[in-house]
Write a structure and sequence with these properties.
Helix content is 52%, strand content 7%. It has helices at 4-15, 19-35, 39-53, 108-120, 124-128, 148-159, 178-192, 216-232, 250-254, 267-278, 285-294, 300-317, 323-335, 343-350, 352-361, 369-376, 380-389, 393-401, and strands spanning 93-95, 137-141, 163-167, 196-200, 237-242, 258-261. The radius of gyration is 25 Å and the shape is globular.
Length: 402
Amino acid sequence: MEHFAVVQSIIRAGLVGDREALDKQVLRLRERLEKAGESKEAATLERLRAAARDTQEMAPSRVEMSRGQVVGEVLEPGVNPPIDRETGARLCTINFPGGNGRAPVHATVVFETVEGLLGEWTNQSALQAVGVSPTRSLLIYGPPGSGKTVTAHYIAARLGLPLITARIDGLISSFLGTTARNIANLFDFANRYACVLLLDEFDALAKLRDDPQEIGEIKRVVNTLLQNLDLRRSVGITIAITNHDRLLDPAVWRRFETQLHLGEPDENARETLIARFLQPIDAPGSTLRVFSYCLAGRTGADIERVCTAVKRTLALSGESHDGPGLFHALSSVLARTPHHDNVPARILAADQEAFVSLIANDGALSLKQTEIGEATGYGQSRVSDLKKSKRHLPLVEASYAQ
């Protein structure tokens, strides 16, 4: 199908609600249609773009909460958070939702879980009809950089509620009894206002209570935390996030009605993230697939760091801001990285032509030779020669031997 790469990019941007990327890809398709002499179709697309500018934004709209879902006073910007009486340090920070943030990019199952929770908070009456209440507590866990904090901020913004964030390790005090008092003061403050309470670094306190290395004070603190979590269920929404879910006390898991694991993004999510992080450079679909192929197994934060390094490299290289320019910049960035778990990334870091040989022979990637040329700058005849050479095989064997 002609122009399929652009159509794919349009669909990808539309599915995640990225208005800016969507408009750029529609404009790109319009320009291609004009060059192909399909002026009628190009004009239709331009009319659609103009109409869209006069209608509502595609960014996710604020969720209208059912009455009685979250109780408490309105939290105003001038309200001061509670402090540790011994040190004077603030026990939490307060963030107010903004309407300009973009939705985090997740795999389909994670996206559906988050949207399902938001749906619960807007349809309390439907749930009550079958004798259940909306979820009030959510535990998000996964490796660093997987988007846990971003997801919590997104949920609060969609609900239109302030986000009270407390780092659990910041509540710990060396003074006997102060840690438990800090926890109680934090929950008293959060329970007073209509808000979402976010407990960061949750594993700092919620450890296994039968750990022989923990003193009795910590065990008492964990009990205080569990009691306050139970009491908050009737008041508001609580989200906890952790990188170390295996350290959590089994009793803690039971306090959270929904547990959400955020891992490395899947292929579609990677391509969406790469397209977002490479902006304002408008990368073709073939380039996004090559980047995704090399960055499989990376977290969203890792992908952002690589894309930022690629843009810096490209800006200083003097090369064109197109597929081949991005390809050479990615190769340079990966070559400067000391270790790669991903075999394609390791091969591209060492030998660009071997990498072209690899992707030309990888049936799972399903890149046509013309697409490989668009992404790498190699002519179709050279791509064909490299495919026949199987130049990548020695590097693949060496990678698996390490």
